[in-house]
């Protein structure tokens, strides 16, 4: 039989070996995590979101008329009884939705914000969504996230007979989200067939291109998409607002006042 001290030493050596193996394993695991973190950091951009207050836009040099448009009290309810649908998705340009919506409501119109039905990307895309994505859409200010707004209905729930007009705000990726949605495209096509007003500003006319309703039409849009509008069969001019039949188009956030008045004028005349 081994002396007791030999048994103890053997046990201690075994424990030491186990501890050493575990330490090496943990060290390798930590090194693996450190490497993974290093890779993640290289794949991730820095977060530095700087919002542009609406007041800054209204007070910018050259926007005096736009400022006066919003700060001059509306006296007549010229659109009383009219119902307007705003078609928008994540990535809409904030002032291009909130500006016209505010004005049309001031004029007495009823306005619904209509969004595509919530359809999260496949799990393998690795995306996550806040819970409010099911009831809200995200605004941007020139490609920077700005805030959220609640929508009233989804595109699969609306009918042409529900509204007198539809308008689409811009934003760089809002129209890209809309033009892929079958319910949105069908609604726009049916609206066009009815002869009721379709209005689009900034990047939004590309949704009309996807709906294939631009052939032979006169229109305008954000400068970057004008070639796309031409390729879709439209005749494009660089003007703040273009009206052609039941279609009104505009170029940019700074044209919001002219765009909103054009929609008002068209609905009054009809």
From TrEMBL:
Family under the similarity heading: Belongs to the peptidase C56 family.
Cited CDD domains: GATase1_PfpI_like
InterPro entries attached to this UniProt entry: C56_PfpI-like (IPR006286), Class_I_gatase-like (IPR029062), DJ-1/PfpI (IPR002818)
Keyword Cell inner membrane among UniProt keywords: no
Superkingdom, natural source: Bacteria
Domain DJ-1/PfpI, residue spans: 82-263
Keyword rRNA-binding: no
Record-given protein name: Type 1 glutamine amidotransferase
One function term, GO molecular function aspect: transferase activity
Keywords annotated in UniProt: Glutamine amidotransferase, Transferase
Pfam families: DJ-1_PfpI (PF01965)
């Amino acid at each position: 039989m081994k002396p007791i001290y030999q048994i103890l030493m053997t046990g201690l050596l075994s424990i030491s070996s186990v501890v050493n193996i575990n330490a090496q394993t943990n060290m390798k695991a930590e090194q693996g995590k450190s490497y993974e973190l290093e890779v993640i950091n290289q794949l991730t951009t820095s977060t530095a979101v700087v919002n542009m207050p609406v007041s800054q836009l209204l007070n910018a040099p050259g926007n005096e008329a736009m400022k006066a448009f919003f700060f001059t009290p509306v006296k007549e309810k010229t659109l009383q009884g009219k119902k307007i649908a705003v078609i928008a998705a994540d990535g809409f340009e904030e002032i291009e939705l909130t500006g016209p919506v505010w004005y049309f409501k001031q004029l007495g119109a009823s306005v619904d914000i209509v969004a595509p039905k919530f359809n999260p990307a496949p799990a393998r895309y690795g995306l996550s969504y806040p819970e409010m994505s099911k009831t809200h859409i995200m605004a941007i200010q020139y490609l920077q996230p700005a805030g959220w707004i609640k929508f009233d209905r989804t595109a699969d729930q609306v009918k042409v007979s529900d509204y007198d007009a539809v308008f689409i705000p811009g934003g760089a990726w809002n129209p890209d989200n809309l033009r892929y949605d079958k319910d949105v495209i069908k609604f726009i096509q049916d609206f066009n067939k009815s002869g009721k007003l379709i209005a689009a500003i900034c990047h939004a006319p590309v949704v009309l291109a996807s709906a294939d309703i631009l052939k032979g039409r006169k229109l305008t849009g954000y400068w970057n998409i004008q070639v796309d509008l031409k390729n879709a069969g439209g005749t494009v001019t660089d003007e703040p607002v273009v009206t052609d039949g039941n279609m009104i188009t505009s170029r940019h956030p700074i044209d919001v006042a002219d765009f909103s008045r054009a929609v008002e004028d068209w609905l009054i005349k009809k």
